[in-house]
Design a protein that fits this description.
This is Metallophosphoesterase. It comes from Mucilaginibacter rigui. Keywords: Signal. By secondary structure, the chain is of the alpha/beta class. It has one domain: 4-Layer Sandwich (Purple Acid Phosphatase, chain A, domain 2), CATH 3.60.21. It is 19% helix and 24% strand. The chain has five helices and 13 strands. Strand 3, helix 1 and strand 4 form a beta-alpha-beta unit. The protein is globular.
Length: 280
């Protein structure tokens, strides 16, 4: 796991960079509680992905219930402005999307956004029917904006995001201080045989706008750190459900302070195993 402190980039115009903080175990244990007291946040949000609700042979109900509890506990102790569920909410069962929304996601004590993954088998029609918005859309929070887009089709095939939509959104948000992009499947293969997309036009678009500060992905349950295209960071958040991936289950937190400094860290919510734990 990538868990060392790292400064990523700060533009010459004074726009924010991203600071990758060490992973922490959980907010549930006081000895591991992590609160940045030095700054007042203009935005604090969490990203979780890959719930795989309905996958046979897994404790998908327990995993989904745990996610809601972890995020609600985090919100109660530290405040979250928003939660983003970044794809693969269900496992090849789009008929279960309404169930996971009603039984679990609607019990989050914080506004949430969702985007399809390749196991959701969903398009704009399916997504709007369940969540009342389509599979590509934008969210604004003051001078911070989010661009979310689908990277799969209704049969689970991988597809590049709608670049015309991404360009139009980034043009619209050209005056925003910070833009975050949310794509379940990364648009680039860092290694030859990875199960990611090859979307050079998308990558070029993301690089063309200096206020795009980070891209967030799910999809690969074993990844919980950061990779780069040029100087642009792409962050991963492990997994909540499914039958493979990191030994623990967790989510990522992103914090933006009043000076537009961005901090992010991965939370080992299940504490199995503990991360960076030592006894002397």
């Amino acid at each position: 796991m990538f868990n060392r402190r790292k400064f990523i980039t700060t533009s010459a115009t004074g726009l924010a960079g991203v600071i990758l903080l060490p992973a922490i175990n959980s907010f549930a244990n006081d000895s591991n509680q992590y609160i940045r007291k030095a700054a007042k946040f203009k935005l604090r949000f969490a990203l979780a992905s890959d719930i795989h609700y309905g996958q046979q042979g897994t404790d998908f109900e327990l995993n989904t219930g745990n996610m809601v509890k972890w995020l609600n506990d985090d919100h109660a102790k530290n405040h979250l402005d928003m939660v983003i569920i970044n794809g693969d909410l269900v496992h090849n069962r789009p008929d279960l999307l309404a169930e996971i929304k009603t039984k679990y996601l609607d019990k989050l004590n914080v506004p949430y956004q969702t985007i399809p993954g390749n196991h959701d088998f969903a398009d704009a029609v399916v997504w709007k029917n369940v969540f009342n918005y389509e599979d590509r859309y934008t969210v604004e929070h003051g001078d911070i904006a989010f661009v979310l887009a689908n990277t799969a089709d209704t049969k689970g095939g991988y597809v590049c995001p709608d670049n015309s939509f991404i360009k139009a959104s980034l043009d619209k948000f050209a005056d925003k201080k910070i833009v975050f992009v949310i794509l379940h499947i990364p648009p680039v293969k860092w290694m030859k045989n990875e199960g990611f997309l090859n979307c050079p036009e998308t990558v070029d678009l993301l690089h063309a706008y200096p206020n795009v500060k980070a891209v967030f992905h799910g999809h690969d349950h074993l990844l919980d750190g950061v990779r780069y295209t040029d100087k642009l960071p792409h962050f991963f958040d492990s997994h909540i459900g499914g039958d493979w991936g990191t030994d623990y289950r967790g989510y990522r937190v992103v914090e933006v302070n009043e000076q537009n400094e961005i901090y992010t860290y991965q939370v080992n919510a299940s504490q199995n195993p503990r991360l960076n734990s030592n006894k002397f």
